[in-house]
Amino acid sequence: MSIQMLAPDVVAKIAAGEVVERPASVVKELLENALDAGAGTVRIEIQGGGRREIRLVDDGGGIPEGEIELACTRHATSKISAADDLFNIHTLGFRGEALASIAAVSHFTLVSRPAGQEVGVEVRVDGGEFKGRTPRACTIGTIVTVRDLFFNTPARLKFMRQARTETGYINALVSDYALAHPQVALHLLSDGRTLLQTHGSGELYDALIEVYGLETAQQMLAVEGELGRGVERVRVSGYVSEPALSRATRRAMTLFVNGRRIRDRSLTYAVEEAYHTLLMKGRHPLVVIQIEVDPALVDVNVHPTKSEVKFAHANLVFSAVQRTVRAALQEQAPIPRIARVRSDTPTIQPEPPVRRRPAGPPARASAPLFPPDAEGAVTLPPRPRVGGPLFVEETPGEETEVVIGAGEAEAGWVEAGGEPADTEVVIAGEEAAAPAQGPVEERLPPLRVVGQMAGSYILAEGPDGLYLVDQHAAHERVLYEQLLAQRRRLSVRRQALLEPLVVELTPPQQAMLGERLEELRDWGFELEPFGERAYKVRAVPAILARRDMRVQVATLLEEWSEGLQQGHSWDEQLLTTIACHSAVRAGKVLSLEEMRELIQLLERSTMPRTCPHGRPTMLLLTRGQLEKEFRRR
Question: Which domain holds residue 607?
């Protein structure tokens, strides 16, 4: 087949295919042009899902009379003039393809009038062919009408969805830009019915209410932070949802770079990492984040639709997003509150964000159960048990192994001196971290334990009502943070077994385990091959509960290998699995002292409101709800 030049109309349709994928693509290009023109109000009307007609009216700067025809020509733009400008983009649109590409596949009409012009001008283009221009009376701004989209490309029409689906794409797009530019009033109508209307107040929170509704907006937390210096500074702002508010997909995770809606897997991952251990698997947060960077340090010309960008300092942007979101969650995330709906079915709603408490020691409802002595050590009263002492002292700063029988009960450590930050206590035989007392943020209000319910829930009184604490989830959070801190210090305490355990594994489990023996040792395990399909366990992490050690270790290794097969991070899977299996179980009756100790440790945790799997550790029944149920008000 001979080489030949393509006809101009074919070239135009190919270019249109890159830019105009569906009606939402048309709305995106026209809306970006209106925003670049400085519009304060934009009205968008669609019919038939945008296929029959799209009409956009803005009050922006308009197009001068002598340039209006040029605006509908390929490679014509007012936003760049030299190749170097591509690396310092300050506008949303710049390629000079949008109007020409849209006009190539529709019946296109453009009416515009700038501020210094007495009358506007209208141009008409059908399928890429100019049909003329006429004077037209109009207000300052631009009106673009696109009718019969893809009328001359029937192959493209086969890929169009139903009108309702295409309308949904347009609604989602306009909603995103309403959040990115809250200073612009947007009005979207479909077949004469209003789908979205914002008032352009300039406040992102107002735009959140108009897009998601008041109830959802009230469950969002403000985020703001900076990282870097000078031209490399990255500023992050916006709103993220409380852990109690999540979605089944990532569609509600909206990211903007300098006002441009983008798709970036790395930044999406950064946000989800900030929610690590706060959300259940398969759930995703609702996020509206604006990232501001120097335009010279971001390349927005890597995709025809400008939906993907490339950062000069990608790691810095990643860290800025992750740290800012994580800090907001740590400081503001509230405790889920028990509420009633009309059907009298209990639901979970969030409490208002917990504010920072002034610097100083944490407030307590009563004196600490086990106060530190003058040297900072915590002395716990001995408790009688069968099989040996419950707490074993060790030399501060040195790793200690405690040898127990394979079938014996638990053993743990407590510091006899040294820094308070290393102080640890044992609850019901399991080890847990207790950070030093001192200036901390108020992550939980002071709680007074009043009892236990069903051997699973600790009842505690707080200043704002009754707290129901899931003892397993709470202890799991405490153990998770303690083990994570030990791992970061490369000092995970292990416990040698007097009688080694022999654990049989399946061939896939054996293959995975064989590749991780040295890394498992860093986590406190000591294993060695024993026969073809078995391993001998000589030591385990000291934090691990030892109810039935053989079953416990076999189950833990089995769950860990299953997590690896599903693609989860191996160390994170191991960390959460150890914490889960070491935590006190539901159904175990705790003494009042044990319950108090657990609550104290939870209060000192970094993220006390959820377990490592994302389940809430506690619920709140407010005093107002109780008074209402008892008809006191």
Answer: 346-381+388-622
